[in-house]
Amino acid sequence: MAIKKILISGNEAIAAGAIQAGCRFYAGYPITPQNELIAYMAKYMPEAGGVFIQAESELAAINMVFGASGAGARAMTSSSSPGVSLKQEGISYIAGAELPAVIVNIMRGGPGLGNIAPAQSDYFQATRGGGHGDYHSLVFAPAYVQEAYDLMQRAFDLADSYRIPAIILGDGILGQMMEPVSVGRQSSVVTGDLAGNTKNWALTGCAGRKPNVVKSFYLGEGDLEKFNINLQKKYKIIKEREQLYEAGFLEDSRIILVAYGTMARVVKSAVHSLREKGKKVGMIRPITLWPFPDKVFQQLAINNKQLTFLVVEMSYGQMLEDVKLAINGSSPVEFLGRSGGGIPDEEEIINRIIRFAR
Amino acid sequence: MPVNLVNGPNEQNGYMKTIFSHPKSLRNISTHYCPGCGHGIAHRLIAEVVDELTIREKVIGVAPVGCAVVAYDYWDFDCSEAAHGRALAVATAIKRVRPQNIVFTYQGDGDLAAIGTNETIHAANRGENLTVIFMNNAIYGMTGGQMAPTTLLNQKTATTPLGRDFRSQGYPLKISEMLAILPGVKYIERVSLHSPQEILKTKKAIKQAFQNQIDNLGFSLVEILSPCPTYWGLSPQGALGWIKDVMAKEFPLGRIK
User: Fold this and answer.
1) B59 with A205: Cβ contact below 8 A
2) Domains and CATH numbers, chain B
3) How many CB atoms within 10 Å of residue A109?
4) Where, residue-wise, is CATH 3.40.50.920 in chain A?
5) 3-class SS at A72?
6) Chain A residues close to B60, C-beta within 8 Å
7) Considering the entire predicted model, what is its pTM?
8) Kind and range of the H or E element at A54?
């Protein structure tokens, strides 16, 4: 496929990026604000030789992903907050059966039916497991439509490499916004180590080998604990190797703003405006939310005892906890956040900085 | 021809032939099932059918949550777990991804007709080319004998201590009859395990349901009335009699579609 530049929404870019990354199974259920994604899949997945199913529910959709992944396909589902809540049981089973899968959450306001405005209030659900049991999913938070497209390759590659669910955590703005995107090229992000990953565990029929079983059930005494210890070892390796972030002006800053996804775009504008006014501010934009890029925070906190962090979120302080855990008390951490339709704007951020920078 | 008395009658000298043996698709181990339970028989019938249709190397089973949760420990072919009620969503995806394989689900009454009713109806309505083995024993066995959607009126269970009362607990759900009206459904038959004769009919129905999939005919379901002496509070023999005399009156045997 030749490289070309097209104007496309975030939802469509995620779908296009998934197909480009080898996704050949998609099941989903309509929910706003991610409907362009399911429509794109309905149109283009069959063209790519893959399977598209409009499922009868979010429960069916995520369990179809379980089945498709178990049968060896690169499989994905997408939804928005209330629908993703419904998928949590299935995601827990996927983690427990060590299946690769990609789950897209284009977040909207909650709790409950909430509204359809963009929000970032599913951070806890995504980064803490979300369903039952001690597990994690990889969580990627694109801030740009191009990045959303590019991260799909990485999400599928790492999901396969580590046999783990990967979540793309966007919001209604990212999903709906249109930006020019270069499609058809190899992803600019380095792909995971796929060496030796032949999916010899997949269900293909037992011709020429012993039967395979895809399961998350360990009834024998000590079996589940042994399995869980191995899961934790895997998570430790991922935490060590897979942290991603974007940062700017870290060297001379006294105040570091922290934001992800759409919120980070507003924060970036604020940082540039403040720099023009001579304020020593910088920013960190986590791209992986799990593993959280704590190393860069720890490094900064060790090297500079005079720092203040300001976490800005479209929630009432969820990523805030990870920033605090990473810094572990060595610097003050401030917070600015709104959710339920409101988004902290550039002026609010600048005023907040000027107030406590005095 | 005189019998070779040293080696005795055997297959080589033509005096004996094997007409019954352990199915290749069934592991030669003991099951965890209670005395008189029907699951062991149903597992074996499926294994015999898989062997006879020579599909062991391409069959993929989807096990339920319920008493048969570890069915994959007994069958000797590829299998997937499914969350409670979601077997037909899992099976739908496996079959769509690998249409060359033969995919079946094995589900109890709670799994297929209570928590998984939605998946059941929509897989059937899409006409998924799948084989469904539906074990109806009118009870939740694994959790300790609670009311199932198929529990009979007046039947006592852990959650209907005075017997199932239609005024507050509804009626036995006849999901097979409900599914029969869907155009995507090719074949539904209700059979039973209460006598050797009925077991043979059950095997025939299972074979038909697998053959339909091999022939790409669409959704096929076999509902099997299966004994649960433990939670019916009956002896194994008494449980077989209860199917014949009571349960089969509520759930009539035979071809439904």
Assistant:
1) yes
2) 39-255 (3.40.50.970)
3) 24
4) 245-357
5) coil
6) 71, 203, 205
7) 0.95
8) strand A51-54
- The fold of the A245-357 domain, in CATH, is Rossmann fold (3.40.50)
Q: Measure the CA–CA gap between A159 and A165, rounded to whole angstroms.
A: 6
B82 part of contact set with chain A, CB < 8 Å: yes
Q: State CA A166 to chain mean position distance.
A: 7
Which residues of chain B are within 8 Å of residue A224 when distances are taken between CB atoms?
none
ipTM of the predicted structure? 0.95
- Read off the pLDDT of residues A117-132 as tens digits, 9 standing for 90 and up: 999 999 999 999 999 9
358 residues of chain A, pLDDT tens digit each: 577 899 999 999 999 999 999 999 999 999 999 999 999 999 999 999 999 999 999 999 999 999 999 999 999 999 999 999 999 999 999 999 999 999 999 999 999 999 999 999 999 999 999 999 999 999 999 999 999 999 999 999 999 999 999 999 999 999 999 999 998 765 544 333 333 347 999 999 999 999 999 999 999 999 999 999 999 999 999 999 999 999 999 999 999 999 999 999 999 999 999 999 999 999 999 999 999 999 999 999 888 878 999 999 999 999 999 999 999 999 999 999 999 989 999 999 999 998 876 6
B44: tokens are 């074996």
| Interchain contact, A214 vs B81, CB within 8 Å | yes
Decide if B77 and A205 are in contact by the 8 Å CB cutoff. yes
Q: Do B93 and A68 touch (CB under 8 A)?
A: yes
Q: Do A203 and B83 touch (CB under 8 A)?
A: no
Structure tokens belonging to residue B59:
């069959």
Q: Which fold has domain A4-201+229-241?
A: Rossmann fold (3.40.50)
Q: What residues of chain B, 44 to 73, have a C-beta less than 8 Å from chain A?
A: 56-60, 62-63, 69-70, 72
Residues in chain B: 257
- Residue A350 one-letter amino acid: I
- Asked whether the beta carbons of residue B86 and residue A206 sit closer than 8 angstroms, the reply is no
Distance from CA of A213 to the nearest CA of B (A): 5
